[in-house]
Design goal:
18 helices, alpha+beta, Beta-Lactamase, 3 domains, Alpha-Beta Plaits, 559 residues, single chain, 58% helix, five-stranded antiparallel sheet, five-stranded mixed sheet
Amino acid sequence: MNHFRKLSALGWGIWSAFVLLTITLFATGVLNAPAIEPLPFILIALLVIIFQLDSIERKGVYFTFSESIVLIIFLFFDFETALFVNQIGLLVFQFVNLKPRVALRRFRFTYPWNAITSFLELAIPASVYLALGGETGLGFYTQDSFLPVAGLIAAIVLNTVLQKYQVGWWFRVDVPVRDFLSIAFYTYIVSLVFIFAASFFRETNLLVVSSIAAALTFFIKRLLIQKGRQDAFKSLIEQYDEAKEAVSLSQSEAQAIEVFLSQCERLNQYDAGFVEFTLFDRSLYFDLKTRQPIERPRVFDLLESTYPNESSVEYEMRFEWDAPMSDEFHDDYHSFISVRSEEIEGIRTWIVMAGEHVYGYPLIIQREIVKLLKSFNRTISRCHERDRLYTESRTDSLTLLANARAFYEYGIQQISDASMYPISVAMLDIDFFKKINDTHGHQVGDGVLQEFGRRIRQALRTDDFAARYGGEEFILLLNHCDVDQAVEIAERIRQKIEDKPFYVDGIAIQVTASIGVDTIQAFGDKRLDDTIRNADRALYVGGKYAGRNRVAHYNYLTT
């Protein structure tokens, strides 16, 4: 930022010197007041303003084509008229392009340098033209030699090359010479062609002639702007459309995040960037360059404190940046964009990007970024809704354990994996549950089922799987669990249920359970259905019929 502060002070110093020089030239009679009438002057000034308001941007440099109409005015009228309308048009351009957030900063830095550039764009070619004997007004058409015109063109080309290095020094922007020269060609050479074409109307009022030349130049300018915008953004918009489609096809939260990060990398619209994913009750942060999770970057805190209610924040050139924000990024970065999506159903995405290119995030690209964030948010919402429905379809709503459907799906997966063996299945049934319902009511019975499920979860190992099988029956799947271990776990659960009464609605209820167990020792020994059937038989033969409140393994049944 020190570079731009120094240049701002230098710019205003040089601007002041030019103003004093111009005033001195008028005071000493070297320059005279424009000879044009007020009404034509106003009309010409409006022509310049129209050109200033409709500009072409190339890598951060605005080309307004106003130089062409100023050149036309110089040749048809005089230097003084061109000088005045040029500076009036520049002031209008500066104020129209001011943004509320950075208006003062932008004007303070850009105006003096733009004013100097505009002055030199006219003064250097005009001085060369006049020094070589060129004439203005009607004399422009009657002069015998084309040497002044050739000198004018050469001065324009040299001045354009000089501008390339001026812009690089002032703004730290590297624009290829060919871009400047191509714009200069359309700005000046095409203008000269139309000037000569307008000579057919030279007997007409000069205002009419200059208007015709300006109108033809404006037409060419519009064609160039349209083509430039199409060429610049068509391909990038197509890439954003592809990115939105790729994100929308994600089938899970993790996949959506990975696809989003990879698409951002493919778009390559930044040299540094971060993203915040707010997903309900948690926030995730990623570095866009490395695609790795990180701690919350300080830039988000700065944006929240400085622009708490702004959904987007944009800087086009480095001198516009707030000082604290500037400290967070490399000095060579110009463009900055922060876009916060709306929070919908607890989901919000916030992306921050910065890069060396200037004017890197025009409005059309900002809109595409917003659409990409919305696409991601909708995808996350859809994935979570699908997960919720999937979980609900496989969860017992009363005990919050898995249901029988989920148990079968999980069980098939486990017995298909040879590394899980031995596998045991345990069936549990609450003793005299019907009596509890008949005595205390079904509401108390539901409370007993809930507490029963909770105690089962407390007694199980981390990898064990519990489900409500139906009614008062529960089922367990125990991986890496042989006969002795299965009996030990079942006995631990039985004791945990019996040790303390169940308190439901202030009622103490003594509850016991009978448990039947069966084990598959190795892959392929038994089917899951057979194992469940054996555990159920052990439950009734070894548990219920043997007096209840006990554990029985199918291998130990005597009948």
